[in-house]
Amino acid sequence: MLNDTKNYFFYRKSHEHVPGLMLIEVARQAMYHYFYSASGYDRGEVSISMSELDVRFSSYVESTYAVDVLISQTEGIARKTPKFVDKMARFFQNGREVARVRLRGGAMKMPLFKRMRVLNFPDNHWFTPSDRVLRNVLVATDGRLSLRADLQMLSLKGVSVRSSAALEGSSDVKSVSIHIDGVGFLSLPIGAFDVSEDRVVLRFDTLSREQSVALKEAIKSHFFFAAEEDFVSTSASETKPLSSGNLAAPRYEAIS
Fold this sequence. Notes:
Largest sheet: 6 strands, antiparallel, barrel
Order of helices and strands: HEEEEHEEEEEEEHEEE
Number of strands: 14
Distance between the termini: 51 Å
Helix content: 10-25%
Oligomer: single chain
Number of helices: 3
């Protein structure tokens, strides 16, 4: 076991012993390595979902001494491409057992996992971006002008951006593109917009099935729910169709 005492997550304060959370994370990583090395599944082929986690500490685990971790099948029987996971991690220090972690769960093929994990968010829920989402979004027009706007929130119906600089010209907004680390650009069509004092809400046009799934995946993995007081949605009656006259009000920063 590698005990990194400089790890901020596990050692936010000075410890004279190894934090229990670190042992749980070591057990999880070691179990996953064992599973992909010996079960017959390739990494990424299945998702391992935990259903039970039993942790028992029989003694403090000292930061001063080395720690060994032994991973085994709880029942002592190895199975090929199993649908269920039941593994035991035993931690040893100075020749004696100091902790034990048992994990139970299931192994689900990724296509099935993705189908089951598509969430249907309410249309009136808005979400703020995580650090994995670039705060500058690209707004495309039919005049092939790329505009940059500050991302505020995202929903299934549109994107809220902060006004920044006056938009010149008479081109219509056609799409918005949001960049997510490790994923790339999520580009969605725009059909209308709402204007308020300090923000512009770009309303999505009809989304394809692929676009709708990608949008839900982005919200599920890279955004956080925003409380109602953080965002007051503009009334649907104020939504305007895109036109050059309507687009004089929003403010964007043009990319040179």
